[in-house]
Amino acid sequence: MTDPIAIPPAAPIPSNIRAVLTEPFAFWARPHLIEPTGLRAPGALRHWALLTVLQVAVLLCVVVPIMLAWKSAFDLAAPNAFDGMGPLALWGGAVLLGPVLEELFFRAWLAGRRRALWAMAATIAGLALFVALGRGNALAGGGILLATVVVAAGGWFWLRRRVDRPGWFVRAFAWLFYANALVFAAMHLANYPKITLLALPMVLPQLWTGLMLGFIRLRIGLIPAIMTHIVSNAVTLGIALTWG
């Protein structure tokens, strides 16, 4: 039994700014699957813009200062993920390519559509096989990557008309939502030269960002989440390059 569950239509977009800005916090108190409105819905572009302003404002005015205070208090090293990269590589990688790839991997499947869940499962399985068998062997590695693309794309095409969500996904959604944000943040610990318990608060910006992007993906859609990620990274990188 697949126990399929249909998700009700998207809720109306709030009409006032206060309702828009408090909506994510109400959602985080009780995460649940919602049908994205898409950017073409009336008021959706304004909705996205306000949520993006909230993301960047809280990130820069609250979360990053807390992270920097922690870094200073314990004399922790700065991230070294982009050491030696020129401005063009920084902007292309951190502002354009990074957000697109991260949103596809972390948020594309978060709405629970069967085609996206299949593609995500195939991708994870393919990456695991590549790490286990494909590294250092061009033929095996290429075969695994090609098979992963074929299996992911084939399943996506086969399931493209299914709009219901698996029952297990709906029931576990709150856990999956928070796990997604935590894993997204923890992944960025690799930006630091040494991973310790003291380094955990250094990824608070990524945790906040993961929570916001998860909400935007579910409330409006994947493309708006990518757009917010790009804007957030662009503003942060611009400030870092300008003022250090």
Describe the fold and architecture.
This protein is mostly helical and 244 residues long. It has a domain of 140 residues. 67% of the residues lie in helices and 2% in strands. The chain contains nine helices and two strands. Strands 1-2 form a two-stranded antiparallel ribbon. Helix 3 packs antiparallel against helix 9 and helix 7 crosses helix 8. The protein is globular, with a radius of gyration of 19 Å. One of its GO terms (molecular function) is endopeptidase activity. Pfam families: Rce1-like. InterPro entries: Rce1/LyrA-like_dom. It comes from Novosphingobium hassiacum. This is Membrane protease YdiL (CAAX protease family).
What's a concise summary of this model?
This is Membrane protease YdiL (CAAX protease family). The chain has 9 helices and 2 strands.
Query: Which percent bin holds the helix content?
Result: 55-70%
Kindly estimate the percentage of residues that lie in beta strands according to DSSP.
under 5%
Number of helices: 9
Number of strands: 2
Q: What do the pLDDT scores average to? A: 91
What is the H/E string? EHHHHHEHHHH
Strand order of the largest sheet: 1-2
Terminal CA distance: 56 Å
Rg over C-alpha atoms, rounded to the nearest angstrom = 19 Å
Largest sheet: 2 strands, antiparallel
| Low-confidence runs | none
Helix/strand-derived category reads: mainly alpha
What is the overall shape? globular
Keywords: Hydrolase, Membrane, Protease, Transmembrane, Transmembrane helix
Transmembrane segments: 48-68, 88-109, 116-133, 139-159, 168-189, 195-215, 222-243
Organism: Novosphingobium hassiacum
Pfam families: Rce1-like
